[in-house]
């Protein structure tokens, strides 16, 4: 029977397949023939000794495999090792003994669970990864060192000894806890200024760009550019945050509370602008570790975040000269010094003259000269200085100690004389203001999760006025001294990458002395009060960058020994990222304050620095308490930035003498409250090298004194509307900034002329703060240029002009009866006239 042709065809194909399978499986061939085929196909050359491959036969690898796959096949089928050198030369070695295996299990130290997909790296190449049980294995090599790594864990180096062991390694990895960066927006207002997730503003002076009127990163001048922060009299000693007085702000320098913040009686900050590394400013929602303030917190740190190289710089401007030096004594210790002194001893620059005229207008010193029209002579001497020292030393890998010292001093001496009707009249005035302090800090990192920090600090302040007059042979001495010391203990615990917990204890003692002594007639009064307070702090923070939630809640439990009173002060910071561009922020806090500044008489301390510190007595001088809440929307996209914040703030326990009244309330002593409702807005746009912003602040600020009629009226520090604009250009080493500030005038009280007898005038006022002074408007400009020489020395030149248009801005106004004319006179105080300044700095 003949088979169909189709069957013949199928039989033939089946035979070919079988034959092909048989050929593929094949018989073993000499090893030398196999590597010769590989050399021909892949254009490589094998190096070997004949003894290693003699009589070696095996099935050849498939020709379709890659070179590496073929070498891997030969390795598995033989007792040989192959070293591929740049796919050109391949060395063949014989394994004398069978390679041993290294195996192990990888676990997490915190919950003891296996870590899957951990990388096991040998000779900088990933050899394998762990399975779901944390298990891995690989062949033992001559180098028995390898690395175990995984995202979220600290990489660990493992060294295996040469002795053979059948037991697998047990390896644990510690979670890598990295404090997530909380800065959510940089370059707000200027480069070097940013806003943090906790609602604070952070200034990095060494990265600071430029602002209108500023050629140095002065902390207290810079903060006045932030919406809601003002100084009604252009003084850094009178900074008002959301309607509060200057003494209601807490100023800290490396943990030391500063009671003096201004040189030249407020026109220059006492904090060396070339020294600070970080300045944090809280308008609301400050940490529970900050106490003793019912307004803002300004915390200045000169401790660098990382080790810095040795540096030295020196500079001079038209007011002062300074030096700064940092030297690393060893890899673990360093010393840092700075010093600054006025140059008014040697030269009176145009800047100094404008500052002098601004500070001393309407004081007893200028009153003397104004009233002497015959043979008047004056000799004045003014100078200031500040100096700091920092010593840091690391002890081992876990401990660090830091010592900070600071001293500040302003000294004014004025001798005046006049001959009137053949009678000599002279005054010898001395005014001294100084603040010095120290802080010793010890920090220990117990492990990657727990840290302890202890601070022991002291701050001492003195304001002394000494006036001697020949007329009446009278000596008047006034002195205000503050001694503040304490201990802070802070523990930080990292629970996991999202949650941290802090606790601490603070002890604070403040003693304040006020002295007044007069001769002819004789009078002497000295009052000293001391308060000791204890505080327990608890604070927790949750920060999840994936869900864009930041939540920080804390409480401060205060106890005042003298009054035997407890108070609880909760603080809340909440930030939620609605999307990548839009954030919602809620801040709230309760705070208290036991010390404050008052004015007994406007002519105290020559009317220049007329405020004196006092402490609460819990009756006529109550403890000040504040409550504040704010809601903020923050938008940032495509170099646009929009920040809108609404807030409510109430401060109770204020006294009239702390508010600087110069109307019918000047000599009235009573307690009350003030309440502020406001909005702060900032819109900013960055275009290449150009940055421009516009800010607006609305403050509705009212007093409430229940024992006065009317009980409610505008606050002395109310600026209902404030608008600021700036245009900043920065390219390479050249920077220039032009800006303007406009604000509605502060409140004033006008006299009721209808009820005043002009022949024998006695002041009668309308309702308190019934009107306002004139609008304030000022245009400022500044520019800097930096260059570097071939030997690495850096030079920086700066120029600024305040009040370019030389506008005569009225900043306060009050009324008094003139003893010379027996009439009511209007007394006006004006801001700085056009004031130039120039600086030059060398750094290396």
In short:
The chain has 844 residues and is mainly beta.
Lay out the secondary structure.
Layout: H1 5-25, E1 29-30, H2 31-42, E2 45-47, H3 50-53, E3 57-58, H4 67-77, E4 80-85, E5 89-94, E6 101-108, E7 119-122, E8 125-129, E9 135-139, E10 145-149, E11 156-159, E12 169-173, E13 183-185, E14 193-196, E15 201-203, H5 219-222, E16 229-230, E17 240-241, E18 250-253, E19 256-257, E20 262-263, E21 268-269, E22 278-282, E23 297-301, E24 311-317, E25 320-328, E26 333-342, H6 350-360, H7 364-370, E27 376-395, E28 399-420, E29 423-445, E30 450-469, E31 474-494, E32 499-518, E33 523-544, E34 549-560, E35 565-577, E36 582-593, E37 595-598, E38 612-615, E39 624-637, E40 640-655, E41 671-687, E42 690-704, E43 712-714, E44 721-731, E45 734-743, E46 747-748, E47 771-772, E48 776-788, E49 794-802, E50 810-817, E51 824-830, E52 835-843
Parallel strand pairs: 2-5, 6-12, 18-23
Antiparallel strand pairs: 1-3, 4-5, 6-9, 7-8, 7-10, 10-11, 13-14, 14-15, 15-22, 16-17, 18-19, 20-21, 22-23, 24-25, 24-52, 25-26, 26-27, 27-28, 28-29, 29-30, 30-31, 31-32, 32-33, 33-34, 34-35, 35-36, 36-39, 37-38, 39-40, 40-41, 41-42, 42-43, 42-44, 44-45, 45-48, 46-47, 48-49, 49-52, 50-51
Structural description of this entry:
With 844 residues, the protein is mostly beta strands. Helix content is 8%, strand content 53%. It has a 22-stranded antiparallel beta barrel. A seven-stranded mixed sheet has the order 13-14-15-22-23-18-19, with no helix packed on it. Strands 8-7-10-11 form a four-stranded antiparallel sheet, with no helix packed on it. The radius of gyration is 38 Å and the shape is elongated. Mean pLDDT is 88; it is low at 1-25 and 179-183.
């Amino acid at each position: 029977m003949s088979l169909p042709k189709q069957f013949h065809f199928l039989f033939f194909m089946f035979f070919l397949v079988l034959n092909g399978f048989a050929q593929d499986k094949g018989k073993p061939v000499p090893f030398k023939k196999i590597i010769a085929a590989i050399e021909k196909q892949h254009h490589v050359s094998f190096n070997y000794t004949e003894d290693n491959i003699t009589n070696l036969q095996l099935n050849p690898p498939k020709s379709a495999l890659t070179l590496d796959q073929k070498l891997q096949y030969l390795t598995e089928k033989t007792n040989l090792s192959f070293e591929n050198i740049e796919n050109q030369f391949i060395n063949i070695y014989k394994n004398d003994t069978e390679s041993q295996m290294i195996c192990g299990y990888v676990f997490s130290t915190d919950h003891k669970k296996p870590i899957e997909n951990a990388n096991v790296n040998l000779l900088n190449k990933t050899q394998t990864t762990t399975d779901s049980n944390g298990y891995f294995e690989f062949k033992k090599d001559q180098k028995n060192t390898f690395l175990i790594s995984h995202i979220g864990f600290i990489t660990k180096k493992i060294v295996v000894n040469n002795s053979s062991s059948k037991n697998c390694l047990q390896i644990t990895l510690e979670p890598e806890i990295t404090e997530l960066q909380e800065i959510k927006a940089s370059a707000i207002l200027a480069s070097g200024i940013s806003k943090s997730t906790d609602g604070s503003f952070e200034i990095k002076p060494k990265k600071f760009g430029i602002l209108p009127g500023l050629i140095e990163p002065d902390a207290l001048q810079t903060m006045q550019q932030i919406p809601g922060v003002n100084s009604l009299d252009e003084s850094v000693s009178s900074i008002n945050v959301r309607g509060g007085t200057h003494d209601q702000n807490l100023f800290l320098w490396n943990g030391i509370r500063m009671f003096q913040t201004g040189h030249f009686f407020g026109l220059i900050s006492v904090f060396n602008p070339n020294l600070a590394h970080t300045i944090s400013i809280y308008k609301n929602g400050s940490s529970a570790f900050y106490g003793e303030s019912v307004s803002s917190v300004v915390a200045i740190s000169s401790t660098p975040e990382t080790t810095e190289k040795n540096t030295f710089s020196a500079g001079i401007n038209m007011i002062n000269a300074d030096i700064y030096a940092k030297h690393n004594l060893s890899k673990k210790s360093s010393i840092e010094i700075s010093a600054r002194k006025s140059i008014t001893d040697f030269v009176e620059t145009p800047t100094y003259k404008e500052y002098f005229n601004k500070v001393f207008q309407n004081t007893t010193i200028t009153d003397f000269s104004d009233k002497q029209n015959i043979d008047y002579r004056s000799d004045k001497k003014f100078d200031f200085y500040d100096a700091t020292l920092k010593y840091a030393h690391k002890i081992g890998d876990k401990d660090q100690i830091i010592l900070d010292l600071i001293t500040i001093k302003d000294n004014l001496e004025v001798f005046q004389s006049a001959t009137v009707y053949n009678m000599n009249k002279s005054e010898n005035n001395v005014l001294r203001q100084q603040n010095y302090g120290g802080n010793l800090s010890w920090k220990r990192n117990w492990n990657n999760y727990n840290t302890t920090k202890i601070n022991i600090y002291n701050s001492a302040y003195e304001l002394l006025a000494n006036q001697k007059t020949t007329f009446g042979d009278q000596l008047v001495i006034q002195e205000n001294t503050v001694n503040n010391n304490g201990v802070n203990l802070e523990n930080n615990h990292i629970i996991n990458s999202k949650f941290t917990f802090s606790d601490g204890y603070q002890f604070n003692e403040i003693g304040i002395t006020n002295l007044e002594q007069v001769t002819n007639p004789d009078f002497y009064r000295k009052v000293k009060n001391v308060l000791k307070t204890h505080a327990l702090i608890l604070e927790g923070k949750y920060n999840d960058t994936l869900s864009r939630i930041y939540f920080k809640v804390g409480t401060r439990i205060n106890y005042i020994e003298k009054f035997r009173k407890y108070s609880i002060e909760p603080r809340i910071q909440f930030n939620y990222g609605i999307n990548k561009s839009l954030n919602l922020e809620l801040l709230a806090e309760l705070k208290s304050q036991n010390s404050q500044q008052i004015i007994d008489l406007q002519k105290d301390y020559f009317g220049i620095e007329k405020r004196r510190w006092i402490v609460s007595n819990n009756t006529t001088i109550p403890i000040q308490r504040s409550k504040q809440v704010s809601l903020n929307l923050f938008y940032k996209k495509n170099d646009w930035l929009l920040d809108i914040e609404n807030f409510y703030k109430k401060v109770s326990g204020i006294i009239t003498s702390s508010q600087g009244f110069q109307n019918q309330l000047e000599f009235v002593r009573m307690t009350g409250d003030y309440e502020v409702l406001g909005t702060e807005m900032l819109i900013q746009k960055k275009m290449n090298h150009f940055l421009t912003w516009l800010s607006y602040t609305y403050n509705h600020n009212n007093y409430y004194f229940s024992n006065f009629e009317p009980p409610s009226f505008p606050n002395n520090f109310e600026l209902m509307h404030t608008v600021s604009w700036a245009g900043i250009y920065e390219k390479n080493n050249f920077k220039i900034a032009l800006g303007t500030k406009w604000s509605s005038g502060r409140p004033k009280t006008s006299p009721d002329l209808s009820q005043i007898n002009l022949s024998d005038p006695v002041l009668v006022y309308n309702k308190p703060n019934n009107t306002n002074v004139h609008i304030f408007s000022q245009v400022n400009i500044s520019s800097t240029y930096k260059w570097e020489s071939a030997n690495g020395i850096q030079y920086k030149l700066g120029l600024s002009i305040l009040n370019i248009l030389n506008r005569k801005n009225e900043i306060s106004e009050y009324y008094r009866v003139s003893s010379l004319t027996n009439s009511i006179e209007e007394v006006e105080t004006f801001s700085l006239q056009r004031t130039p300044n120039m600086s030059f700095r060398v750094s290396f």
